[in-house]
Write a structure and sequence with these properties.
The chain is an alpha/beta fold. It has two domains: about 160 residues, 3-Layer(aba) Sandwich (Rossmann fold); about 150 residues, 3-Layer(aba) Sandwich (Rossmann fold). It contains twelve helices and eleven strands. A five-stranded parallel sheet has the order 9-8-7-10-11. Strands 2-1-5-6 form a four-stranded parallel sheet, with helices on both faces. Strand 7, helix 7 and strand 8 form a beta-alpha-beta unit. Helix 1 crosses helix 6, helix 1 packs across helix 12 and helix 6 crosses helix 12. It is globular. The termini are close together. The structure holds phosphoric acid mono(formamide)ester (CP).
Length: about 300
């Protein structure tokens, strides 16, 4: 693997899922692969799971890890030809090349502004690192994608089902703040790529990018959509058409025990209890959120392994 910025960088999804599950059973088997290799993790935004699980994954492979909260470094300029007489002190052209001299792999987390759709969709932060760095890039959640989370989710579904084609429903749920589309986008792409019966439910006005949802069935009737679901993946996102807007916080869309029945409840975390999902679900045996978070390590580890094997 040359990079991991999108789930389509994976050659064979069923195979990588099985490899990740094997790594979970024997995490230190490939400790030699990362000897004298370094991972630099750059954070433009907050993280708990991604930061710790990716560091753990790298260490399981014997890598050294350096972490930089980029907001504590020089302000980066991404535009070509700018007269840098304002806040930006360093251009991505130098920064990416310099960082590449200190490390073998660069992982980047950079959320969207949710103010300028075109700018966010250009993925200018991630793409400029890919363009100017001389080492492989891993996406730790960008403006439009969270491929490490999506791989984690596929691993978790694979672990928890013995059905050939489980019914998986992605349900929007209310949230007080405007959230990105990245987790939903990558989850949709992943579900479209594996053997599941997949559908989406959200209120009117919350349609995601049609280039991503494609022909996935979409329902505005949550109760109907959740019927007989094996997995309910819960996620809030802000409006895509009214870009970045919170149109409503209708509490009727919160995931409750009554709605979910015997289905397994998934969420990428962090989750706002009793706003997005009620306590009774999160505290029940039907919740897979902790297992999901645990699998973040092995999604990152299998991706790093594939990249190290290709260095
Ligand atoms: N799910 C996820 O990416 O968690 P963090 O934002 O804590 O990294």
């Amino acid at each position: 693997m040359k990079k991991y910025t999108d789930i389509h960088d994976i050659e064979n999804i069923p195979k990588i899922i099985q490899e990740a599950i094997a790594l979970k059973a024997n995490p230190f088997q490939y400790e030699h692969l990362g000897k004298h290799k370094t991972l630099v993790m750059l954070f433009f935004n907050s993280s708990l799971r991604t930061r710790l699980s990716t560091e753990k994954a790298a260490k399981n492979l014997g890598m050294d890890v350096m972490i930089l909260d980029i907001n504590n470094a020089w302000n980066l300029e991404f535009k070509d030809g700018t007269i840098m007489n304002l806040d930006s002190a360093e251009h991505i052209k130098e920064a990416a090349q310099v960082i590449s001299q200190y490390t073998d792999v660069i992982a980047v987390r950079a959320f969207p502004s949710l103010k300028n759709k075109e700018e966010d969709e250009s993925e200018y932060i991630l793409n400029n690192f890919t363009k100017y760095a001389s080492v492989p890039i891993i996406n730790m959640e960008s403006a439009t994608a969270h491929p490490l989370q999506a791989l984690t989710d596929a691993i978790t579904i694979s672990e928890l089902t013995n059905k050939k084609k489980p019914k998986v429903v992605l349900s929007w749920a209310p949230h007080p703040k405007a959230l990105p589309h990245a987790v939903a986008n990558s989850f949709i792409k992943m579900m479209q790529s594996i053997d599941v019966d997949f559908s989406i439910t959200h209120p009117e006005g919350y349609a995601l990018d049609p280039n991503i949802t494609k022909n996935t069935p979409i329902s505005y009737d949550q109760e109907e959509a959740l019927k007989d679901a094996d997995f309910v993946y819960v996620k809030n996102w802000s409006s895509y058409d009214n870009y970045g807007q919170v149109l409503d916080q209708n509490p009727d869309w919160m995931i409750t025990q009554e709605k979910i029945g015997n289905a397994t409840c998934m969420h990428c975390l962090p989750v706002r209890r009793n706003m997005v999902i009620e306590d009774a679900v999160l505290d029940s045996d039907n919740s897979a959120v902790i297992q999901q978070a645990g699998n973040r390590t092995f999604a990152a580890q299998v991706v790093l392994k594939k990249i190290l094997e290709n260095l």
